[in-house]
Amino acid sequence: MNRYIIIFITAGSSEEAEKIGKGLVENRLTACVNIIPSIRSIYEWEGKVCDEKEILLIAKSREDLFREIVEWVKKNHSYKVPEIIALPIPLGSEDYLNWIDEVCRSN
Length: 107
Description:
107 residues, alpha+beta, Alpha-Beta Plaits, four-stranded antiparallel β-sheet, 3 helices, 4 strands, 39% strand
């Protein structure tokens, strides 16, 4: 049985978010990517506290594809250290989870 995940990725612009979202789906690494515009991120970077507007991507995929997703995002992202974190999906509609299996590539 496959294990399913939700992946959070932030981007610095809507253009970058669209590029990443479309690329992940077109490469069959994720089944779906939601793009949420204009979140506010407060974080420490290189000794400074930053307060920036970012775009949040929420992607749905399988755990076995996570390493490939990380590699793909790093190659296509402008950040030196992009946020790419995953949480498990412990439960979900059987139809939706089956759809993730259908559209994501098989390893």
